[in-house]
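Table S2 (continued). Query chain:
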Amino acid sequence: MHVLIAVADVGSGVQLEEALNRAGVSAKWDASQTDGPSNAPTCEVVLLDADYLGARLAEVANAWRDHLMVPGVVAIGNSNDARAYAPRARVTLLSTSAKTTTLTTAIAEAAKLRLATGMRWAVMRAALRLPPIENTIEQWPATLLHARSVDLEVARSALRWHVQHYATPTLLLEQLYQERILTVPELETIAHADGTKTVQTLVKTGPLDPSKTAKLLWMLTSLGAIVVTPEVHDPVTPARRSLDEIRKHLRARVNRLERSTYFDVLEITPLAEYAEIEASYRLLGSRYSPQALQRYDLAELVNHIKATWDLIEKARTVLVDDAHRGRYTDYLRQHLATLRTEWAIDTRDSQAAAAAFMVGQAALGEGDAHKAMGHFAKAARLHAGHPDYEATLAWVRFRVQVASGRDPKEMAILERKAVEGYLVGCRPWPRALVALALLCSAGGDADSARWHLAIALSIDPNVPAAAQLAQRLGLRK
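Corresponding output:
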């Protein structure tokens, strides 16, 4: 076995070379390779200097994995940066004082798994014992023919890093279809890889058995016909966009409700009575209930579903029962200072905010945007974070800014970003969604405008301004 020692310090490099050679490993120190492969060295394993590379460790490790020799990679270092970046680089990190036996064991393991550390054309060719060659259409038939017989452990080891990642087709997959290289069962299996399902789901889906599906995903990803990503890749289709948004909502909701109150869970004020509580509960259920979420492949976020819904159920149970609600209100009086809340506000502020919002709506209906903005700003000040107040204020503020000569597209994008921040992790708010749709349209993103408007209308077909905007955007009912 040939080992390349790519460390910066001459003392450490020479010591490692001598220690490994004494252990029967053919090792050579070469400081010129510290920043990545600079020529074509012959080696099965490369030792990287994690202390020297720091944040560049993953970049350099991947550069070596893309090298024609496809060496295994081991890192050496003691710094905090080395420990932080080693997992991202997917390398074993050893201390600079590690024993020689520990080092040789890590080297042997890296050599064994070197052809399963990534899914790229060069790695696939090496794993198939085929000579290195450029990735061209002419090479696909023969390469994929060999790939179907690859050692299953190679495919499994490569995919283990990506079991909860989403598999999304690229333009190369269309070329594969046109070349008619894939078999019918392979085509039927890969048709499920639409960017909304994880690798672990696809392996179980069929019609190919799991082992053949794993090999298929390995070879298509190595080819570049599929990309595997921890988040939804390029959410341009309705299915991908829906999945991408629900992941953002679920993740944001967990963060938003940490140390919050039951009023924040249901997004209601202490003035809310039974009918409003039940309406909020139904809206939350449309987005966060296990029944609503079961159609999504949420990967690692699936663990949040039960806890998120259990909290909603608990909040509802407490707040609809007068006795429970009274005891909870007493608890809040004692502990509110230690909690985070946007909704458990003084009832007088809540009433004043609602009144200011109504006056602002009337002023907006009369065409006085400046007057409306003042009242909406008051509502948002008294009840900060209320989606309707904040979104409507953003829309009117946009109108006032444009009237004063500001760039419409620039302002629309800026206000849109603010509104999206208020809505993520919440239940659907139809009026706020219409305001967001207006900002999207003003910013030139008609697709997003139609998307948000469709959600708003599905909840409340009579929400103000929705019908007019829907007609202008050509939204189909």
